[in-house]
Amino acid sequence: MDTRMLRPMIRERIQRRANDYPIKAMTPVAEEILRNRNLLFHGVSTLFKAFPILACKILVIANLNPKFCPEVYIGKEGHLIQTCRGYKRRAKNLVHQWTVGGLNDILVPVEAFHLRHMFQDVVKHHERFDLDRVPAVVELCWQAGTSPNDKDLNPTTITTTTNVDGNSIASDGVESLSTEELQSVAKRTLDAWEAFRSGVQKLLLVYPAKVCKHCSEVHIGPSGHLARNCGMFKFESWRGTHFWQKAKVDDLVPQKIVWRRRPQDPPVLLNEGRDFYGHAPAVVDLCTKAGVVAPVKYNCVMKIKGLPRHAQFNV
């Protein structure tokens, strides 16, 4: 069979598949995702004013790409666990230097190119500045049929807590909230977090999304873009070309795992007890600080009933 005769058929099929999207049954799921996203940003921006968040301020130089240490801790005093890689390329196992954290330290922003429609032409390298960058989850919901102009789903005014870019807007009166009110906010925030991630998982089963296996670049669409901005191999012969693979929920909504202090642990977590301490996603740990019980699925990593470091065993 002459393959040249099949080319028009293949091109026509590719053009017609755009008519199958967006899937109308998935549009309510996308709208619910944006509502839960707004509730999540509102709840976290409220809770982090009541519970201190610390972020490491040490500059890390890895793979010729300088950035700050991503470690985050929720508490008045930072831990002393030596997991910082420092400002030198080969440095490791250093104590973190803490500073005041913010909303982006808990809800890590992940951006992607905003496309006119899902099956438009592949973005070339010289076109990378012609397209807007929007939150990847918002782009996924827009391609799923939600309207970018819906102010209820995409707030842009200062009367709301977050705007379409995910930047927090200060909420007043947090200091006057009682313990019960903070617990209620934390409960709504944790429910929104679980529903948010669950909704993104549903959309990823229907709509294609790609992530580079060497960096955190995300692209919403059937094929990745051709912008050569991969920071890991930009000095190699392929000059920063991404290596795309299927994206997962954690690629679009990072959990940001943090060390968690339990009641049986010392006031300041020490490096000697790092094998005993638990972990938790930052949002979950922040909500439990307000008195909310975490879902059972996190008990394994949180080590709620685990032994403290000074526990002795009689053999």
Structural commentary:
Helix 2 (27-47) runs antiparallel to helix 5 (179-204) and helix 5 runs antiparallel to helix 7 (282-289). The strands form five sheets. This protein has a three-stranded antiparallel beta sheet with strand order 4-1-5. It has a three-stranded antiparallel beta sheet with strand order 9-8-10. The protein folds into two domains: 1-48 and 109-254, no CATH class; 51-101 and 255-315, no CATH class. The N and C termini lie far apart (75 Å). It contains eight helices and twelve strands. 28% of the residues lie in helices and 13% in strands. It is α+β, with helices and mostly antiparallel strands and 315 residues long.
SSE topology:
Elements: H1 3-16, H2 27-47, E1 53-56, E2 59-62, E3 65-68, E4 72-74, E5 98-100, H3 103-106, E6 111-113, E7 133-135, H4 136-143, H5 179-204, E8 209-212, E9 218-220, E10 244-246, H6 249-252, E11 257-260, E12 278-281, H7 282-289, H8 299-302
Helix pairs in contact: 2-4, 2-5, 5-7
Oligomer: single chain
Helix and strand sequence: HHEEEEEHEEHHEEEHEEHH
Q: How much beta, percentage-wise?
A: 5-15%
Average pLDDT reading: 83
